[in-house]
């Protein structure tokens, strides 16, 4: 699995960087991938 948060600038986004979930930063590419795969987007707004 790709760790897309390992290089995040935000300390908040770095917290789950080692989590086995397929995390993405909010970006047009993330939403396009969700559309392509027909999966929901879950947002963390902490």
Automatic annotation (TrEMBL):
UniProt-recorded name of the protein: DUF255 domain-containing protein
InterPro entries in UniProt: Ssp411, Ssp411-like_TRX
Record domain Spermatogenesis-associated protein 20-like TRX: where: 3-46
Origin species: Streptomyces kanamyceticus
PANTHER family for the chain: SPERMATOGENESIS-ASSOCIATED PROTEIN 20
């Amino acid at each position: 699995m790709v760790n897309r948060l390992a290089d995040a600038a935000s300390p908040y986004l770095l917290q789950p960087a080692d989590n086995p979930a397929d995390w993405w930063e909010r970006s047009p590419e993330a939403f396009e991938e969700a559309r392509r795969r027909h999966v929901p987007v879950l947002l963390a707004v902490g």
